[in-house]
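User: Could you write out the 3D structure of this protein bound to zinc ion? I've included everything you need below.
Assistant: Certainly. Input first, then the structure.
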Amino acid sequence: MSKQRTADSVTLLAIESSCDETSAAVVCDGVVLSNLIANQSVHEQYGGVVPELASRAHMQNIVPVVDQAMRLAAVDKQDLQAIAFTQSPGLIGSLLVGASFAKALAVALQIPLIAVHHMKAHVLANLINEPRPSFPFLCLTVSGGHTQIVLCKDYLEMDILGQTIDDAAGEAFDKTAKLLGLPYPGGPLIDQYAQQGNPNRFNFPEPQIRGYDYSFSGLKTAILYFLRQQQAEDPQFIEKNLPDICASVQHTIIRILMRKLILAAEDTGIREICIAGGVSANKGLRKALQEEADKRGWHAYVPEFQYCTDNAGMIGFMAYHQYRAKQFADLDIVPSARGNWKMAEM
Ligand code: KG4
Ligand code: ZN
């Protein structure tokens, strides 16, 4: 995307390295000029992200990824007003690579540093492109490590209404995929197989959790026992039924996710509804959201695919609003694996 820069424009470089994607973006006045993402295929064979390998891959990727993001945006280092980076939450070794790189560049260029909360940036990904929700909106953020219902009142003002008490929705997809012998990350593959399968062929239990919270660990165990039992009767059960298993599991995860989102929308009276995070790329979830929106008079929003999974574009977009609010970080700031974001008092 191109953007006419003026004398008082704010141009930022953003770095995302919280998990297994190395990403860099250039954002000018809230417009994403470039958004480069390097995936790490090294984890596929292990069925999950290996933290030490992720850190090493970030170290190899970060210079070429930043270089290309700057070139694609046709921006020079001297044009930058600040450097933004993902400070939390994430894998600590991975976060450290991005944080160290960002600090070094901020010091060298003598420009401010902006520390961004990864999960809040996922929520704001909905505001990067048209059509945009208006404030306040609800966002179901579903990623590999988190599942949250967030009430977003403004760019920098958000509360968590509910979240998972154990596994995240993305983990439910990935762990199911592992049980089915599919490579990591399994979410996109389950999505793909599910499209040819029957979602009502197999039934899995839904958890009974209070309020807007979620739980996915019971589903994982139920799938494990179900597959064990079926394979004892027919060792080829998975091969013969893969699309139906994927469709049924996906259908259950989506039903669990939507039920609490509907509850939160009804209780708050908010009809601007968004989804975000890696699992928001799921075709079944996107369809279910639109169906509920049509039924309930919601305005539903989903980020562009490139802003669903981890990306620096969303980090730079949030950082732009932090820049405007003069929320700068000191150079002694350290990354945090868990991050600090309190639950809303309801
Ligand atoms: O937001 P994200 O890229 O990274 C984290 O912050 O965790 O989310 C990654 C998660 C993984 O669990 C992956 O399997 C899941 O998002 N995912 C999907 C799809 N695309 C990515 N899950 C279901 N369907 C998809 N199409
Ligand atoms: Zn993420």
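The mean pLDDT is 95.
User: Perfect, thank you.
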